[in-house]
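Quick review question:
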């Protein structure tokens, strides 16, 4: 079963990113920013969703600061407080804004419901990866939050929003299992490389 295999891989890949030192994390976040800001996908985007790093994830914080200073509109995910309804919405974020920890201890904006941005109106989504492979398959934290929020992309001809998965280079796996609900990525960017995912 894919789910058992995914859980096993998740544990091993999370351990890898958790073992990085504070200095390694800082350097990786800077390298990530340098690679991302060169991409037309970033340059052309006005509305960008990212995340606050947790659990050793590569941090988009330097990039969010750069984006804000360059007049881009940034957003962070905010999950539904209910443990059963695994949905999330995207709220405006400015890099100096105060955040509140969610159920998993991840900082979230305390925005009002009417401020939420519809996922299809985002230009670019930078999503956290637990693992990835060369073919562009991804492994998340297992909640299915991103798969659900962007499920509309599977039946849409519109390329928007562009999906870029972010990870440390050490989170590469050989061959990840794929489920039909997994949202395909357009690019994967790590501290060491940019992978353009081939369309299937
Ligand atoms: N930085 C960041 N923000 C994010 C995500 C993410 O992966 N990274 N998400 C992407 O989906 C959403 C939150 N999803 C998450 C799903 C599971 C766990 C997690 O730590 N699960 C634990 C234990 C769960 C529990 O005890 O209830 C685990 O699996 O060990 C964290 C976030 C929205 N925000
Ligand atoms: N569009 C969807 N509608 C309902 N449930 C879904 C959808 N997509 C995924 N799921 C459910 O989410 C669960 C987690 O899926 P999976 O293990 O692929 O998560 P993930 O991709 O690691 O997480 P994330 O999307 O948060 O990064 C699965 O049980 C799956 O059935």
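Suggested answer, residue by residue:
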């Amino acid at each position: 079963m894919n789910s058992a295999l995914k859980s096993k891989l998740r544990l091993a890949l999370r351990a890898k990113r958790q073992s990085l030192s504070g200095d390694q994390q800082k350097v990786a976040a800077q390298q990530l920013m340098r690679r991302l800001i060169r991409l037309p996908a970033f340059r052309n985007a006005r509305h960008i969703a990212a995340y606050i790093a947790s659990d050793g994830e590569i941090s988009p914080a330097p990039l969010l600061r750069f984006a804000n200073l360059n007049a881009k509109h940034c957003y962070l995910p905010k999950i539904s407080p209910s443990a059963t309804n695994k949905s999330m919405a995207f709220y405006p974020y400015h890099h100096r804004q105060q955040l509140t920890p969610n159920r998993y201890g991840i900082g979230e904006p305390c925005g009002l419901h009417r401020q939420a941005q519809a996922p299809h109106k985002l230009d670019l989504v930078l999503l956290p990866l637990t693992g990835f492979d060369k073919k562009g398959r991804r492994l998340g934290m297992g909640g299915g939050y991103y798969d659900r929020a962007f499920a509309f992309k599977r039946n849409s001809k519109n390329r928007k929003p562009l999906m870029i998965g972010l990870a440390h280079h050490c989170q590469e796996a050989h061959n990840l299992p794929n489920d039909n609900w997994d949202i395909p990525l357009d690019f994967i960017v790590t501290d060491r490389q940019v992978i353009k995912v081939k369309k299937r």
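Why it works: Residues 2-196 form a domain with the Rossmann fold fold (CATH 3.40.50.10420). The CA atoms of residues 68 and 94 lie 7 Å apart.
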